[in-house]
């Protein structure tokens, strides 16, 4: 058994190496916030700021770990923290509550608190949640894993055991009954880029600042456990107001950058009909502006992968839609897959984005640009080359070539409209989304839940400034309820439109309560088709049928006369039109839930195609041994 000192040293910091280059710190301001539209965040500010020299007298109630953490969160752009109280984090919550610029948002469960921090990070650039030890930590773990997969900086703070209990052979509540308290920490090691266990005040300042800066640097979640007896104890290291800091920008290897640009320009300039395709890692690379600059300069046809929707302006003159293999938007796949060269900026090729590994792409025709690496065809590859630097430099070297876009323009046929409904005819999903399209503006944002909403929302044409978010890599059903809460809290000037299936809603419905407490005015279209439709199309069975709820009745019960809330059920187009008019008119300041009742087999044609291909990929027999 380790001594107390050895146990403290063992738990002092456990951090996982990252594949990204290390960075130094400098004094300055930090700007990590993503603008509230479909343009990715600006780079960290380069201008140094005046160092605040005010000090808080030692032994003052303000010279504490809790106050330092609260001030640090505010400095990086977090003004709302999503939490669930538990006995190990109550003292810490006291200090967060006492910070005037920080709003503590109490959630119904830890999973939704994590999802809310995820949605908040998508709008603000960084999010935070606070839970209690192990029972809270393991509950929030799924949401943290989703944020990790989506490259979102998220500060997960856990109220830990009393610092005196480490190494004492004591068994604590909220644990699995062993004297070793590291189970939660070990679970977080695989889904966070840095872990800090703060069980003494001597190095707490260093650990907290390192964790926060690492989340911003790596654009991944971090884990901070703080002993429950530490937040309120004054310590000299916290006697000064936290000095605002910035991360030194990553720099490209200039020789590598020049070589990569020269090779890529030669590759693309000799092509007859090259295209550009934007991918989801443009967000973490902060390269959307550079990608637009490249698009403007070269004149190529421009598509986005499904998980990059919202990262490129869809009003751009050469935008041709979403490239998603067999379920791409109309005429997009034909142009991309027939090109003789394609540049993919920040792609993720998984089984979902590749429609069961069925994309008709050839490696030798592709330039793959990742956040810090460029690969041209089968080779060469260039490391330490930042995406945004590469795209901006390449824009100056490419010949203008609109051939692919001109081909698209020649073959394009405007999409038809859904068949007109007969009076009082049962509402169809394609009619629903035709009306949702008409609701969108630069003052709105769309949250698409895992399921058929993925495919229907992909076909929406986003006006300039309209936000768009969904979780494709992790694909956790129920994500959208918490994410909607967090996004709406981060962007109160936007009217969030959430499209959620009934099965997903049942997973996380409780935090409609928190939306009401926060006075949010989201419009939720709850699509009631009686089950897990996306899973039906992959592999059907009785387990995909769920118990039908009275969803409007449930939300009315949660409302309970406290807050602004309006609900309705719609079964036909006439009722839908009336409901939308009410939500945008008399109830524009209310949380609105519109339960849309549709047939269980009413799905998009894209889901039918995608489901059969993913099913085929899932059911491949084992390779011969």
TrEMBL record:
Residues 64-173 form the Thiamine pyrophosphate enzyme N-terminal TPP-binding domain. Homotetramer. This is pyruvate decarboxylase. It catalyses: a 2-oxocarboxylate + H(+) = an aldehyde + CO2. SUPFAM superfamilies: DHS-like NAD/FAD-binding domain, Thiamin diphosphate-binding fold (THDP-binding). GO terms for cellular component: cytosol. It is an enzyme of class 4 (lyase). Belongs to the TPP enzyme family. Its EC number is 4.1.1.1.
């Amino acid at each position: 058994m380790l001594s107390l000192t050895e146990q403290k040293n063992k738990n002092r910091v456990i951090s996982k190496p990252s594949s990204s280059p290390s960075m130094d710190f400098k004094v300055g301001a930090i700007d990590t916030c993503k603008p509230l539209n479909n343009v990715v965040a600006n780079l960290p500010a380069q201008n140094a700021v005046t160092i605040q020299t005010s000090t808080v007298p030692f032994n003052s109630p303000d010279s504490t770990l809790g106050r330092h953490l609260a001030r640090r969160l505010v400095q990086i752009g977090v003004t709302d923290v999503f939490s669930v109280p538990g006995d190990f984090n109550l003292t810490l919550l006291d200090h967060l509550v006492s910070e005037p610029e920080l709003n503590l948002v109490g959630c119904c469960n830890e999973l939704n608190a994590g999802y809310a921090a995820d949605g908040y990070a998508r709008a603000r650039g960084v999010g935070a949640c606070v839970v209690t030890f192990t029972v809270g930590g393991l509950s929030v773990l799924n949401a943290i894993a989703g944020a990790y997969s989506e490259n979102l900086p998220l500060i997960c703070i856990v109220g830990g055991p009393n610092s005196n209990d480490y190494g004492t052979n004591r068994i604590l509540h909220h644990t699995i009954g062993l004297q070793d308290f590291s189970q939660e920490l070990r679970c977080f090691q695989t889904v966070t880029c840095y872990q800090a266990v703060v069980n003494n005040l001597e190095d707490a300042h260093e650990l907290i600042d390192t964790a926060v800066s690492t989340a911003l640097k790596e654009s991944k979640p971090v884990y901070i456990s703080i002993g429950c007896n530490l937040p309120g104890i004054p310590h000299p290291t916290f006697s000064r107001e936290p000095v605002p800091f910035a991360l030194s920008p990553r720099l490209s290897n200039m020789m590598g950058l020049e070589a990569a640009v020269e090779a890529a320009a030669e590759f693309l300039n000799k092509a007859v009909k090259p295209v550009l395709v934007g991918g989801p890692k443009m967000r973490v690379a902060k390269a959307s502006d550079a990608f637009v600059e490249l698009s403007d300069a070269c004149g190529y046809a421009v598509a986005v992968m499904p998980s990059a929707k919202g990262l490129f302006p869809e009003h751009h003159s050469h935008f041709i839609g979403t490239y998603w293999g067999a379920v791409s938007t109309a005429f997009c796949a034909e142009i991309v897959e027939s090109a003789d060269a394609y540049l993919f900026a920040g792609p993720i090729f998984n089984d979902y984005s590749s429609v069961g590994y069925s994309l008709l792409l050839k490696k030798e025709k592709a330039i793959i640009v990742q956040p810090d690496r460029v690969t041209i065809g089968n080779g060469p590859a260039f490391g330490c080359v930042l995406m945004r630097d590469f795209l901006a430099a390449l824009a100056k070297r490419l010949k203008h070539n609109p051939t692919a876009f001109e081909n698209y323009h020649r073959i394009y046929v405007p999409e038809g409209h859904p068949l007109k409904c007969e009076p009082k005819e049962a509402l169809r999903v394609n009619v629903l989304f035709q009306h949702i399209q008409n609701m969108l503006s630069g003052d709105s944002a769309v949250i698409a839940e895992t399921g058929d909403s993925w495919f229907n929302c992909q076909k929406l044409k986003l006006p300039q400034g309209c936000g768009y978010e969904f979780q494709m890599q992790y694909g956790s059903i129920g994500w959208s309820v918490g994410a909607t809460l967090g996004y709406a809290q981060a962007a109160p000037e936007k009217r969030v439109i959430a499209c959620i299936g009934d099965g997903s809603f049942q997973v996380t419905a409780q935090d409609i309560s928190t939306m009401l407490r926060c006075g949010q005015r989201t419009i939720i279209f709850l699509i009631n088709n009686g089950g897990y439709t996306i899973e039906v199309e992959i592999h059907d069975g009785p387990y995909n049928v769920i118990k039908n709820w009275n969803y409007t009745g449930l939300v009315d019960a949660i409302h309970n006369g406290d807050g602004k809330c309006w609900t309705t059920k719609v079964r036909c187009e006439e009722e839908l039109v009336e409901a939308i008019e009410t939500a945008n008119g008399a109830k524009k300041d209310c949380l609105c839930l519109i339960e849309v009742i549709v047939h269980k087999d009413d799905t998009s044609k894209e889901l039918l195609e995608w489901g059969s291909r993913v099913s085929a990929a899932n059911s491949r027999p084992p390779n011969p041994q």
